[in-house]
Amino acid sequence: MDNDETFMKQAIELSKLAVAHGNEPFGAVLVKDGEVVFTNENQIYTRHDPTFHGEAGLIREFCAQTGVADLREYTMYSSCEPCFMCSGAMVWVKLGRLVYGASNTDLEHILGNEGCNCSALVFDNSFWHPQVTAGVLRDESLAVLKDYFGTHSKG
Ligand SMILES: [Zn+2]
User: Fold this and answer.
1) How far is the CA of 77 from the centre of ligand 1 (A)?
2) Cα 78 to ligand 1 centre (Å)
3) pLDDT over 70 percentage in the chain
């Protein structure tokens, strides 16, 4: 298993924990120099904050706790493609690299919607372009999303 799969597995585990904690199934892991430096899971319901997604929440907490606000040397692993808001946050912190599992289109198909390649739409139209690797452990990521959104609506 390569490093991308190892860290993605951790992001997917966090997405399951998010559900166990009463939130939506999304997790994110921040890595620098091959080491995990921060993790976060979706907390939109328990924090009463619809913007506390896995990735945006991670960025806010990590930057606030460490004082680091430039993430060009970091890689974020996200269990599912980041939404428009989280992709925008990745531009503002100049994230070096993004790796995600299932795509937004995969997620939206579960919900009966069309979806789009939202991270690319943001990055391609921004001043900062993180490197992107898509579809890592996509099936595992998708299984968690299907399990949850088969019986829950999206918040
Ligand atoms: Zn988001």
Assistant:
1) 13
2) 10
3) 99
Distance, in Å, from the CA atom of 155 to the CA atom of 128, rounded to the nearest integer, reads 29
Tell how far the Cα of 89 is from the centroid of ligand 1, in angstroms.
9
**Catalytic annotation, residues:** 55
Length of the chain: 155
Which string of DSSP letters, residue by residue, matches 26-59?
-EEEEEETTEEEEEEE--TTTTT-TT--HHHHHH
Cα(15)–Cα(22) distance, rounded to whole angstroms? Answer: 11
Spans of the chain, pLDDT less than 50: none
Per-residue pLDDT at 2:
78
Longest dimension (CA), the chain: 41
What is the rounded CA–CA span in Å between residue 74 and residue 58?
13
Q: Model pTM?
A: 0.96
**How far apart are alpha carbons 150 and 155 in whole angstroms?**
14
